[in-house]
Design brief:
The structure is a homohexamer of 61-residue chains.
Chain A lengths: L2 E7 L4 H19 L7 E7 L4 E3 L2 E2 L4
Parallel strand pairs in A: 1-2
Antiparallel strand pairs in A: 3-4
């Protein structure tokens, strides 16, 4: 049943996405016995111009 | 007042989006008396390379 | 694969939740051929003191 | 620690995003003593064809 | 049309929530001409045991 | 900069939350070089009466 949303600033490679999905799914199975087939992991790659930290856009830092 | 977020893997046609928005809004009005004018429905079409299930990216399945 | 998040201000009865989950799942199956067993619907009942509209908390209106 | 997600229908200019990020970060610092360096603000510009109100897509209104 | 979700670790007072809702709504009106009556602000007060930073739960720091 | 939201149906123990936060933070550091101090992980424990799958509430299954 878990639904996991991973938001990162900027782009990830396909390989990185594969490892993130695999790693989170395995972690939730081992730690909380959540079946992989019921675990959704959705990755949002947010444009650096759309992510602010410290009052500034990351694209301006 | 309802805010509904619908995340699907892959693309929807405009007609499908129209039916989803109309259907959810009508459902919330009938079931919970939520006024259509206050009901927001936001649809996110997620790239299959960004959605994992069973530890794999959908684009790899 | 759909993940749907329904946020409403205030409480719903169990029966209302059942109808909302059933209705949204059926709608996505009919409109976009999404299999019910892969459709997650998560309902958030938000306290009226935590929902603002027009610059005011709903609990103050 | 705050994480703020701002969803708007349609596009914003870079300048508008800068003002929104700056304004929200300052507000949370003044009102709730949240340190700017720990405050994330993520802006989602949603296509008007993906945002429904009153049972209609904004792009159809 | 904006929908803003503010997640903070720990509790806020009612007065703080009022100021956050008012401030964000005014900001979006001034910066992006978003009508207050269409602006939703939802505040989530997250338990410190459910928020992790640097690999630790805030409640453990 | 990552913000990760983990939604599970039902309750987790504190120890499970610690392992989930630690594991996800370490994974994002190793896979995508994301600094732990900038990685937020927020866990939502959703009541089984508020999570639907296959058109049914989990609490009814």
């Amino acid at each position: 049943m878990p639904y996991v949303n991973v938001k990162v600033a900027g782009k990830l490679t396909k390989e990185q996405k594969e490892k993130i999905v695999e790693g989170i799914t395995k972690l939730l199975e081992e730690v909380a016995n959540k079946p992989p087939q019921s675990t959704y992991v959705v990755i949002d790659e947010v444009d650096r111009e759309n992510w602010g930290k410290g009052g500034k856009l990351l694209s301006d830092l």
